[in-house]
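ok trying this again, last paste got cut off
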Amino acid sequence: MLNKQYRLKNKKEIAFVYKSGKKTAGKNLILRFILNNKQLRFAFVVSKNKVKKAVERNKIKRMLRVIINAKIDKIIKKADIVIEYKGYINFINSKEEYKKIKIILDKEIDFLFQQNNFYSF
């Protein structure tokens, strides 16, 4: 579970990130962010047009939160980040498929964060 201090919840702030933030796209995810001096905050978006069932949308958001929670110590920049799921992976409810999708999204988040210099090594 992602700590409350790392959550971006206000609709106006999310709209501000969409409007004036930078955008980087991968195969399955879109990373939108705007740097700030306050703290690191995340929002996760899964469109109803891409993933019809609410259960699957919530599973994807939960999966993304778990991935980010594991990487939060490596991220050095303070920013408001919106991670948007494009919906190109067909979601299957088996545990094997869940693990495969998690690995794919994990690698893609690493790639997008490295591309935008969010990590410290």
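PB: full thing came through this time. The CA atoms of residues 67 and 107 lie 10 Å apart.
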